[in-house]
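The methods section describes the discrete structure representation at length, but only in general terms. Since the whole study asks how a given chain folds, the encoding of that fold should be made plain. An entry of this sort, consisting of the sequence and the corresponding backbone structure tokens, reads as follows:

. . .
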Amino acid sequence: KSESSEASLRSLPILPDSDSLADAVAEIIADMMKWEGIAFLSQNDFSPVTKLSRRNVKVWPIRLPASIDSEDDKELMLTLTRLRSAQRRRLVFHSMDSSVVKFVMKAADKLLMLHSSLSWFITYLDFGDVVSIINRTADIYGLQLLNRHSVSSSSSSNDDLNNAVLCDSVGLLRHILSQKYNCSKEPEQNVNLKAGDVMKFVNDLPNGTSAPYIGTLSKYVWTNSSDNTGKMRTQYSFGIMGYNGTTTKIGNCTFEGNNITILETKQMPSRDQSLDKVLAGHTFTVITRVEPPFVMKTGSGRYEGFSVDVLEGIAKEMNFKYDIRELDSITQNRSDVEDDWDTLIKQLMVGNASMAIGSLAVKSSREEQISFSFTIISSTISILTKRPVTSPVLFQFLWPFSWQLWVVIIAFYIVAGGALWVMSRYDVTQNGSEQQFDLKESIWYSFNLFLGGGTEYSPQTTSMRTMIAFFWFCTLVITAAYTANLAAYLTLQQQDNRIKSMDSLSKQMTVKYGLQKNSDLMQFFKDSSIDPFERMWATMKLEEKTRLIPDRSTGIELVKNGMNGSDFAFLDLALMNEYAALRHCDMESFDQNFKETKFSMGFPNGAPYKDDINRAILILKERGQLDALKDKWWSIPATAECADYVRPEDRQKPTAELDLANMLGVFIVLLSCVCLSVLIEISKRVMSLINGRRKAKQ
């Protein structure tokens, strides 16, 4: 035999050989746990993969980085992130390195891969050391070879398995010495323990001639390996453990030569699936971009907004914490909003964040990269326009006639009254009458006829009656014309001529319109072959530099100030336009029933906690909390100047009744006439009093 072969035969393994362990792992997974498909993680030892495949278990091998020096190792995090995206729910982690096991499990915990929807099997032979760093509720299975009760708790090392190997190596030599010599006496001089003595002890163990040593790693008995190239341990056993909040021994694995016996002893207790327990205590890294009213940042650096309140409601429901982060590269009012979200999505994909919130729209292209929660809020498209100026017109009752016509009518009645007075001077019927038809009475008579008032005097001569008859006719025509024009004018005043639909917007040329450049809405108009969208896109394309707006703030400013002397209408999401209208008194938004956009929370693909978040969202919906939050953030702020603002859909009246502003001028004229009459009467009495005193002095 070669020297290497002889060395192998004379070496004694303390830990189980890799081939026997691979057989045990394969049998436990295939026969006891009945897993049909797994992801197998290891740095370099993939010996169980072949044995699992022979038992009809589908295996996806995942090679971990060769060197893992921390739980934040970039290559490790990237590997686990890709594994999470593959959505493998049953994972086998094969390693005998305590530090590597702990780094990998801590990294998995950070990525929420120790969630209750996942199951892990860890082949490290000290399961108690593994679960000591785990505080999640995932189903975690493993092997317990080390008798932890026999390990000194005063050891400063965190690697109890390696300590046990050292202790058992020393203990084994001491046991062999005690079998040959009486250790209670002083040994004779020149007495040595030879290699042959040790091998004789080992060879006598299987037949019971030598007493086996039982250490912290079970009973030590060796036999020749199946290929006779070395020694392998036999006649030992280890526990099969389970953990889902509490540790339970669920089985036992015993080795007898090349035979492996698996005995299932107990089922793991069912875990608590209540919503407030599955993610309790975990801290999520949440990534976002600031865009009112979804996410806003206060002067103190605190985040607020609709999406932040939704996240806070979910966190309270599920008892987890969160840390909101905004990418340093993101600035507000940029023209590459879609690029910003693409950057955020990449951060989710590489594992730098657990979820994304804000105005994150659900799109088919994004669905290929990340996962979305249930819809939190949705929006159609709307038209943001400037509100028409509605200043009250006090004397609008004079508007049916032009001022020139009013002057002619007044002159007409003065002339008619003067003519009556002149003709009455030649009316012999007035001779001896108590009431003379003088100039004052003549003007009063014509005014009464015009207003339809009654008078006691009636002209008696044919000439005067002829003139009065035609005067009545002219008064009738003027009154009818005034009534008709006033009714038409008031009707026009009640008509709503605002642009409230895409069709009316596309058919006019006075109000210019545009939308945000490189947005989903622009792509919709560009690809649409439906009228009026196709026609509107052709119009906007002709003036691309002015009609395609770089960002929302520019669009709002154009609506407020106009474009080149013309009014401007901005097409955008209804949620954004309505928010702008509620904060600018001179704007209003009109919803259009097309292109619904849904907003959700974003997660990395395969995120196991997505279903739990969705359950919490459904609870908030059922309680009406999402509706209440929408009303909170899409409402007029208390400090707004237009606190009396009424939404366009609420501003329509069922009838065209007149209000005080329509008739206020009439009452002003009435009040003025009353005041004038009072002044005339006072002046008349004062003059009468003065004249009376003058006469008394004379």
Summary: DSSP finds 25 helices and 23 strands in the chain. The longest strand covers residues 587-599.
